[in-house]
Amino acid sequence: MNTLTLARPAARTALITGANNGIGLELTRRLLTEGWHVAALIRSSFAADDEVTACAIRDGRVRIYAAELTDFSQLAAALQKIQTNETAIDVLFNNAGGSLPELRFSPQGREMHYELQTVVPYIIYRELKDLLLRGSLKTVIGTSSNAFNYTKIFDADNLAQPQRFKQLTGAYADTKLAMSLWTQALAPREAKDGIFLRSADPGPNNTIRKGKKSGLPFPVNYLMRFFFAPPTQGAGRLHDAAFGSHKSDVGALIDKKGIVTLKFADQAERILENVDRIYQEEFRVLM
Ligand SMILES: NC(=O)c1ccc[n+]([C@@H]2O[C@H](COP(=O)([O-])OP(=O)(O)OC[C@H]3O[C@@H](n4cnc5c(N)ncnc54)[C@H](OP(=O)(O)O)[C@@H]3O)[C@@H](O)[C@H]2O)c1
Q1: Which value, in Å, is the radius of gyration of the alpha carbons in the chain?
Q2: pTM over 0.85
């Protein structure tokens, strides 16, 4: 008698930047419980005493690629490893980010929030597009914010070298808006290849870490410590933006109420041109 062997469907893979802490870690844990594999693009380790991720690392369901994302040589090396080792990516979560306490510049000489939160997500998408095309869901979610709700002045050409610095509502907010804007501009073109790009606001989450200098103004730091939700909330919102009722939307910023109308949309193309120029002129040569 012939034995019928039923092939198990291959697990889906999510690539998550900043997968080892806060919202990214909760998203990683959730996807693992749902049977996913996670390619974690991270600069520091997962906590050794986190049994869920430690077990998944041991049996290959979490695969780690290390890089300080704002350093293009490290980013290029990590992306090359991902291109070699992964066979497909179903969903890309460009999640790494955060508010810094002072004005800093990347090794390439651009303001740090701009490099990490606007330029790098674009580079990662461009370099992993072929793997996304081999995946089943072909979805990209950038982690945005509502910190730009009160932004009154915005100049796409000033983001790399801002003259002044303000915690949270300055470069942090501007560069989240810039990422959501290039996503909106690029998405209709990429949808022709079957790829869905969106951004998502994870809402307020308490991701305060002992020993980490906060880039949050005192009142926000206080609110976060005592009143913000745990990061499972933000992970849930990123999960919804990828797989929920907006899963066929193209280019939108999604928050808990639905689609957000982006301000300064007239500058979306300009931001896209700027990040693409950096990608073509500075990054491609490293790959
Ligand atoms: N928490 C909120 O209320 C809130 C609200 C709106 C949006 N967000 C956004 O949500 C995302 C996740 O933030 P979170 O609150 O979960 O903060 P978090 O706990 O500090 O996690 C941030 C993650 O990004 C990584 N990261 C930061 N800079 C990096 C760099 N230069 N290179 C590589 N990795 C880097 C961190 O790595 P390390 O572990 O090495 O530090 C960490 O894994 C961020 O984009 C943030 O702006 C958060």
Answers
A1: 18
A2: yes
